[in-house]
Design goal:
single chain; 209 residues; alpha/beta; six-stranded mixed sheet; 23% helix; binds zinc ion
Length: 209
């Protein structure tokens, strides 16, 4: 599996390009900004984008989705519970100094436990509300890898003081869903460095009982 992670936009959201070496199909997760850079990474590996996956509808994760869709024709996929966030994107863009992304249309609503295939690669949706109502993670069982969005960070967890945030709910998502994954799972958070489930289980101060 090709997996390139690079920070995009003023808030340095970790964007992922996941590619299958055999079929050359690719999925892009959280193309928040810098779509030219995303397309350059895709072209460098000779990939074709067949899906755009959004972990949640914050501007730093979804801001470039329509531009990437226009360039590739790939459908935009996100959990439906974050659709109510879409009208807030203009305001969010102002807060962080990004240009407004315009109207964003979700093509397919992700459902918990559904698997998306990119060539031979399986990505399973883990519905993990709390940072927003519609936050989700993508789990790659064969590669023992989790793209966590803003639900889990190295040494921290997602903030819950923004619209739709719920501290009790994010803790439930983390304990019941995320920490149910094996310790060796590599975690690629929405911002900052990678970590593992085992490391966070042991030392993340927000996850201690
Ligand atoms: Zn967020
Ligand atoms: Zn973020």
């Amino acid at each position: 599996m090709i997996h390139e992670v690079f920070p995009v936009g003023p808030l340095q959201c970790n964007c992922s390009v996941i590619g299958d070496e055999n079929s050359h199909e690719a999925m892009v997760v959280d193309p928040g900004d810098d779509i030219d850079e995303v397309l350059a990474v895709v072209a460098r590996h000779g990939l074709k984008i067949t899906r755009i996956y959004i972990t949640h509808a914050h501007i730093d994760h979804i801001g470039g989705a329509m531009k990437l869709k226009a360039a590739t024709g790939a459908p935009i996929t996100m959990h439906g519970a974050d659709e109510m966030q879409l009208p807030l994107l203009d305001m969010q863009a102002q807060w962080v100094g990004m240009t407004s992304p315009g109207k964003i249309r979700i093509d397919e609503f992700a459902k918990d436990a559904h698997s998306y295939r990119t060539g031979d690669i399986e990505a399973r949706v883990l519905y993990t509300p709390g940072h927003t109502e519609g936050s989700s993670c993508l789990y790659f069982p064969a590669e023992a890898r989790l793209i966590a969005g803003d639900t889990l960070f190295a040494g921290s967890i997602g903030r819950t003081d923004l619209p739709g945030g719920d501290h009790h709910q994010i803790l439930t998502s983390l304990h019941d869903r995320v920490l149910a994954l094996p310790d060796e799972t590599l975690v690629v958070p929405g911002h900052g460095p990678n970590t593992t489930i085992g490391e966070e289980r042991q030392s993340n101060p927000f996850l201690q009982k």
